[in-house]
Write a structure and sequence with these properties.
The complex is a heterotrimer. Chain A is mostly helical. Chain A has one domain. Helices cover 74% and strands 1% of the residues of chain A. In chain A, strands 1-2 form a two-stranded antiparallel sheet. In chain A, β1 and β2 form a beta hairpin. Chain A is globular. By secondary structure, chain B is mainly α. Chain B has a single domain, classed as Helix Hairpins (Orthogonal Bundle). In chain B, 78% of the residues lie in helices and 0% in strands. The radius of gyration of chain C is 22 Å and the shape is globular. The chains are: A mainly alpha, B mainly alpha, C mainly alpha. Chains in contact: A-B, A-C.
Chain lengths: 513, 100, 525
């Protein structure tokens, strides 16, 4: 508030908000392109829109990766911040968008709904997600959260004639809006108590110590609950299975990864920057000091401890009894939220780094898995039951192998990215002495391994009972699957490169001040 | 002059009515309305706080919330229309093919 | 620096995998090419491992042939390999058994040959990696890597209840090993707290000081993981299922090598890392191994299925290995190590032999046979020799191992030794009884009249095993001398200073033993 600086030059704007600018401008142009192509053949229209979207995401990743890495700055009166942390998560989410766009080209054709607005919504969803992760102001957080969510509600409802898709999307919409309203009420309380919407000023106020605890706690709880909805943590997970089952498969993959990354990213930012830092004399947060010392430490840790444990248990346990593979992966996604939360509880650098690594690894394996699911499906809901996977290992060996790889990675077995990711978050928790949580957590991952392996045994150890005809395979989908598979194995064998980048990213949380 | 706490109380009550309506109503239109009520209670809250703190940002936030709520209603009602086409019902107990 | 021979040996099988991938398996010729490539790859691995034999210096007790590269620096994780007198023999055992196994699958595995051989070779790499890894993280990666190929081997090519067996195998192992992972990380952070040095290097983690309660807890978690693998009574229930349902090759690998991972884990990790915890649990483990010896033998006696009988005999034999490790005398430990190799050879051979008749008659029930000694003389002779080796007949390898273990046990704890010795007698009873029912007497079942004797390929893969049975039986020193210094090094590491506590613990053990005796008597009734 004190250093409001209205003057900014274009270069500055480009450096800080380039990713969002590209996506928003390109999204608007895509609408024009869609109108121009309206007269053309469906096939051509779908291909053009799809490839343009792929190009847009690739360009965004290129921009994010090539921009001044060490630049830490804010823009628009401290609304958006550019720091390594938000760039890292932005790249994760844009990668999710890129892979989803590549798969969508084939997906839409298989399902006979080549429509331009699909890609436009996808682009705006990623733009909103990047805005969300860059914002340091609760007002902007709400707006970008809604930009992302509204686009995804529409995408989830994209199968117009499918009752499943409509029902899922509507549940998502209702509970998502409910979550947003909770979040907003928390924001209002924060505004009334601290007189600011900026999370760094809020942190300064809170660490000043002269406040009444109750309103802050209520606001904290409501803001956290709003994020938990998006993160799919128990007990805010009820929408997850329905939405994941009903939504178009590729969009499910995108939701499970990009939205999760955005929600976890902004959650950690609000938690570690806004609510719990201990400010050193320089005014910078001292992350080395334990978060337990901060005023809210005793409150949030047990809560997340239990939520993480419940997410891991309930997600994995209910997944065991599922017969629809998308629903099973939905419950597994709840469980993965629990694993990531373990890294947050650790509240140390390793934990935050682990969560960032986990988000990236999870993006690759989950989108990959949903890519295979849509290919085997042919048309949406034609072959989604686990029973349909019987004997597939010998009918479609390559697809089955890829799916096995992604599932093994999700089960957390070496040498895959999933193992390393779990290792990082659990190691961080153990470092802080959370032995019990870690032990219970790994036990739930045995339950997880059970149902992931069940798909593998259905594919390889059972004879087929009915003919499953997969849809035609589109080249971009294959490329996306191969990229995801190579990424999963590469990160499993040589995680250090990404981990060191993730570590720099989590350190830069302190730079937001 | 009306004290701030009156506004806050009214807003909290509205919010609770919204939450209660959302959780108990079985008509999806009413559920949408409940969410709108929750958002508007926040608006009241913010406007009152903004006035008493003599800080303009709260009211800016109110405008944004109104705009976003409109967009949300547009999307939500759009989904309701397609949902109704598929189910011929607006009651949640009829919309239950996804379960397990 | 010398050539990284351990890396070569470990990853040579994967080279074979790459070649196999390129061969189509539609035709019969393609299948044969795949089998041949797998055989050649495993033979090359064996030849490469003979280089280790030359390079290995038996006079050094510590690790040798070290290779060390940084892998994940931020966590101090290294790609570190090295061997001592125990892993040396286990590597040779692995590389020796794998080609024989591949040879035995030539006809038995006819479906999905390519996938099978790939799984087998990946499994070999994982097993070798487990034996050479000296970094706890690397060890864990290899340890878990074993699970998937073994799961597939049991589940895809196994018998009727193969899926149940495969999942049971997987879940048992996974529960143990994941808890171990938690404790590995805990141990590393304790070490970090003390020395300010974050490392997963086993050699540096030896002797980490930590509160006694944690040492006990960590040992319990490690011991759980390894005891499931051994398997120790009462965690053995996955073993009979896995063995019975697995294809012959799977059983051979499982019995011959995978079970040794458990005892190897105790020797290499659980005991030297946490000597206090090890001492605390020593009475319990001794009692459980003795129960395992006797229980395994008794249950084996009543099995109608030959393969299941052999599977339960494994529980009994591995009980000896654990007992030998835990008496902590030189004879005991050396006997235990030797018994690991013996068990790999004899039980591996028994499973191969069972597989041979199963291929011909498609049954493993004892009552289906009888009097076949006259029909298949070569087979019967070889079977008898292997049986004798399994029950520890003098001049065969089993005798040396069991004798050394009992000798070691006698020095420390006479009661334990006496109980263990009854296992030898029971072993002779169930094995010879089975041999008598299968091979001698009149031919009751006319189907057996047409039974064919072993062909050249089958003799070819049994012969090396027979040679080893007598080699170890007649000249054990050739094997023992390679492990003397490593075993002494091990005992020095594990021995706890406060000798006062030891006899007291054993007194407690004796009490429990007497309880065990009563139970056993009840079982007999």
């Amino acid at each position: 508030m004190n250093n409001i600086n209205m003057s900014f030059d274009l270069y500055h704007l480009w450096q800080v908000c380039g990713g969002q600018l590209i996506l928003i401008v390109a999204g608007l142009l895509l609408i024009l392109v869609d109108i121009i192509l309206m007269e053309k053949d469906q096939e051509i229209r779908g291909r053009w829109m799809g490839w343009l979207t792929v190009f847009i995401f690739a360009a965004t990743i290129g921009h994010l990766a090539c921009r001044e890495w060490d630049l830490h700055d804010t823009i628009f009166m401290n609304v958006f911040s550019a720091d390594k942390y938000s760039i890292f998560i932005s790249i994760v989410m844009t990668c999710a968008g890129l892979l989803a766009a590549m798969m969508s080209i084939g997906y839409l054709r298989n399902n006979g709904l080549v429509r331009g607005e699909y890609y436009i919504l996808l682009v705006f969803a990623v733009a909103g997600a990047i805005g969300l992760i860059q914002s340091v102001d609760l007002l902007m957080m709400f707006i970008t959260l809604e930009v992302m969510s509204l686009a995804i509600y529409a995408l989830a409802a994209f199968l117009k004639d499918s009752s499943y898709s409509q029902e899922g999307a509507f549940k998502y919409f209702l509970l998502g809006s409910f979550g947003s309203a909770l979040f907003l009420f928390g924001v209002a309380i924060i505004y009334g108590t601290t007189g600011t919407l900026n999370i760094t000023q809020m942190a300064q106020y809170i660490s000043g110590g002269s406040y009444s605890t109750l309103p802050i706690l209520v606001a904290f709880a409501m803001i956290m609950a709003g994020f938990f909805f998006k993160m799919a943590m128990v007990p805010f997970h009820m929408w997850t299975p329905d939405v994941y089952e009903g939504a178009p498969s590729v969009i499910t993959g995108f939701m499970a990864t990009a939205v999760k990354a955005a929600a976890f990213g902004v959650f950690m930012k609000v938690l570690f920057v806004g609510f719990t830092p201990i400010l050193a004399s320089s005014g910078q947060p001292d992350f080395a000091a334990t978060v337990n010392l901060s005023a809210l430490g005793p409150y949030w840790k047990p809560v997340i401890w239990w939520l993480a444990l419940l997410s891991m248990f309930i997600g994995n346990l209910i997944a065991v009894s599922q017969s629809n593979i998308k629903r099973m992966l939905a419950y597994s996604s709840i469980a993965h939220a629990g694993y990531m939360a373990v890294g947050i509880i650790a509240a140390n650098g390793e934990g935050r780094m682990g969560v960032l690594f986990y988000l990236f690894a999870y993006t690759l394996m989950n989108i990959g898995a949903f890519g295979v699911v849509y290919l085997i499906d042919g048309m949406e809901r034609k072959a989604q039951d686990l029973e349909d996977y019987r004997g597939l290992g010998y009918i479609y060996p390559s697809l089955s192998f890829l799916l096995s790889l992604f599932l093994v990675a999700m089960a957390g077995l070496p040498p895959t990215a999933g193992f390393i990711a779990k290792f990082y978050v659990f190691a961080a928790a153990i470092k802080e002495g959370y032995f019990l949580l870690a032990a219970l957590g790994v036990l739930t991952s045995v339950i997880g391994a059970y149902y992931y392996l069940r798909v593998i045994y259905l594919m390889y150890m059972k004879e087929k009972v009915k003919d499953v005809e997969r849809g035609p395979i589109a080249a971009p989908t294959v490329v996306a699957l191969v990229i995801a598979a190579l990424g999963v194995v590469y990160l499993g064998l040589l995680p250090e490169n990404l981990a060191s980048v993730a570590n720099l990213a989590q350190q830069s949380l302190a730079m937001i001040f | 002059m009306v004290h701030l706490s009156w506004y806050l109380t009214v807003s909290a009550m509205l919010f609770c009515i919204g939450v209660f309506g959302f959780l108990t109503r079985r008509n999806i239109i009413m559920m949408l309305l409940s969410i709108e009520l929750m958002l508007n209670s926040v608006n009241l809250n913010l406007a009152a706080m903004s006035h008493y703190m003599e800080d303009i940002r709260g009211q800016v936030l109110v405008f944004f919330i109104i705009a976003v709520a409109a967009a949300e209603a547009a999307i939500g009602l759009g989904i309701v229309v397609t949902l109704f086409r598929n189910y011929r019902s607006v009651y949640t107990e009829d919309i239950t093919i996804l379960k397990g | 620096m010398n050539a990284p021979i351990l890396t070569y040996v470990t990853f040579l099988p994967l080279l074979g995998v790459i070649f196999i991938m390129a061969v189509p398996q539609r035709s019969e010729a393609g299948k044969n090419v795949i089998r041949a490539i797998a055989l050649v790859a495993s033979l090359f691995t064996f030849l490469a491992s003979l280089r280790i034999y030359h390079a290995f210096d038996a006079s050094i007790g510590a690790f040798q042939l070290l290779e060390d590269h940084v892998w994940i620096p931020s966590y101090g994780i290294h790609y570190k390999l090295g061997i001592d007198g125990l892993s040396f023999w286990l590597i040779l055992l692995t590389t020796f058994l794998t080609p024989l196994t591949i040879l035995s699958t030539w006809r038995a595995i006819d479906k999905r040959v390519k996938e099978f051989q790939v799984a087998l070779l990946v499994l070999e790499t994982a097993m070798l990696g487990t034996f050479v890894a000296l970094d706890l993280f690397l060890f864990y990666v290899f340890w878990e890597l074993m699970l998937i190929p073994m799961y597939l081997i049991i589940g895809v090519w196994g018998g009727e209840r193969r899926i149940y067996a495969a999942i049971k195998f997987f879940l048992y192992t996974a529960v143990g090993s994941l808890l171990m992972l938690v404790c590995i990380i805990g141990l590393v952070y304790f070490h970090n707290e003390h020395t300010g040095h974050l490392t997963f290097d086993l050699l540096q983690l030896y002797g980490t000081s930590m509160p006694r309660i944690y040492e006990i807890l960590f040992f319990a978690a490690f011991a759980l993981a390894f005891a499931i693998k051994v398997p120790m009574f009462p965690l053995h229930t996955w073993l009979p299922d896995a063995h019975v349902e697995a294809p012959t090759a799977g059983s051979v690998i499982l019995a011959g090598i995978l079970l040794k991972m458990g005892t190897y884990g105790f020797f290499r990790f659980a005991m030297p890392l946490f000597p206090q915890g090890s001492a605390y649990f020593a009475p319990l483990i001794i009692v459980l191994s003795i129960i395992g010896i006797i229980y395994g033998a008794l249950v084996a006696m009543v099995q109608p299925d030959i393969k299941k009988l052999v599977a339960y005999s494994s529980v009994s034999h591995l009980g000896y290995c654990m007992l030998g490790l835990y008496v902590l005398t030189r004879q005991g430990v050396e006997g235990s190590v030797l018994q690991m190799i013996n068990h790999g050879i004899s039980t591996g051979a028994l499973f191969l032999l069972v597989g041979i008749v199963y291929e011909r008659r498609h049954t493993r029930l004892i009552k289906e046979y009888g009097g076949i000694a006259r029909i298949v003389p070569i087979y019967s002779t070889i079977f008898l020799i292997v049986t004798l080796s399994s029950i520890g007949f003098p001049t065969t390898n089993g005798f040396i191992g069991e004798f050394l273990i009992l000798l070691g046990a006698f020095k420390v704890n006479k009661i334990a030794a006496v109980f263990a010795a009854t296992g030898v007698i029971l072993g002779a009873v169930y094995m010879l009884w089975m041999v008598q029912r299968v091979f001698y007497g009149q031919v009751k079942n006319p189907k057996n009249l047409a039974l064919k004797d072993m062909n050249l390929r089958e003799v070819a893969y049994m012969l090396p095993l027979l040679v080893l049975i007598f080699w170890i039986g007649l000249y054990p020193n050739f094997f023992l001398k390679k492990m003397h210094s490593s075993v002494e090094h091990f005992i020095n590491q594990v021995k706890v200073e406060d000798v006062q506590e030891q006899p007291h613990n054993f007194a407690a053990a004796n009490n429990i033993l007497q309880l065990g005796e009563v139970t056993v008597l009840k079982v007999k009734e």
